Backbone:
């Protein structure tokens, strides 16, 4: 199986599948595919293995159903595009090399991938959309592709070395890295510092990948420009009034 990553700001993962080769992805990730690609959707992919396996995948921020894309009868082309500006990273996964990734980080993988919950903690209402902080565990034996948002910065932490990170910037890290959620010290810092209340403490040894554009930050930046249904109705009403006035003036 050959792959290439096209583009820069909004990259696309393009996979060239030989007959019999396949990849699995969360349902709804497909961008385009050639005619020889066949789809099969079920709960058994991604380490599903019945209700318990699917439940563990959902608990980690995934979905119950996943889709297998396979080339049948002829080579096929398959493509997945990122949803927001970011990067696509290929990783090798095996029993001795597993990863923790942010809840929306899994893009696709070859058969043999095992997705489950890696970390789950409630951070209070209103934080991360009230869903708390979730990490997926990426294990099994496969080639996988991970989607990280914005620019990606990685660090190799030595044993005992700790990096404190805003939770939304945690993209991926090796399973050898210890992880815990801590509070920002000091009441004034928490209330007036503007950096939130919680930090993620990542302690080596191991590599960490940090993302510069958490979806929560993007949503916050766009919120002043989003029109609510009530405002849209008011704007439509005002536009109708102005339009009727202009028509009346032109008809005189």
Residues:
């Amino acid at each position: 199986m050959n792959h290439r990553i096209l583009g820069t700001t909004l990259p696309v993962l393009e996979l060239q599948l030989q007959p019999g080769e396949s990849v699995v992805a969360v349902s709804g990730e497909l961008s385009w595919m050639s005619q020889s690609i066949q789809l099969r959707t079920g709960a058994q992919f991604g380490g599903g293995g019945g209700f318990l396996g699917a439940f563990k995948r959902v608990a980690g921020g995934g979905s119950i159903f996943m889709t297998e894309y396979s080339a049948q009868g002829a080579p096929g082309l398959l493509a997945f595009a990122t949803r927001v500006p970011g990067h696509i990273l290929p990783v090798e996964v095996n029993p001795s090399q597993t990863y923790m990734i942010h809840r929306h980080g899994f893009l696709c993988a070859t058969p043999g991938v095992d997705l489950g919950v890696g970390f789950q903690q409630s951070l209070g209402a209103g934080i991360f959309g009230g869903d708390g902080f979730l990490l997926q565990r990426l294990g099994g034996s496969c080639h996988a592709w991970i989607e990280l948002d914005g620019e990606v910065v990685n660090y190799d932490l030595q044993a005992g070395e700790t990096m404190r990170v805003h939770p939304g910037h945690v993209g991926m890290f090796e399973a050898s890295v210890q992880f815990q959620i801590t509070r920002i010290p000091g009441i004034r810092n928490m209330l007036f510092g503007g950096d939130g209340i919680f930090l993620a403490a990542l302690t080596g040894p191991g590599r960490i990948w940090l993302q510069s554009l958490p979806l929560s930050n993007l949503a916050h930046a766009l919120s002043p420009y989003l029109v609510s249904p009530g405002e849209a109705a008011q704007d439509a009403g005002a536009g109708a009034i102005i339009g009727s006035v202009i028509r009346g003036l032109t008809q005189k």
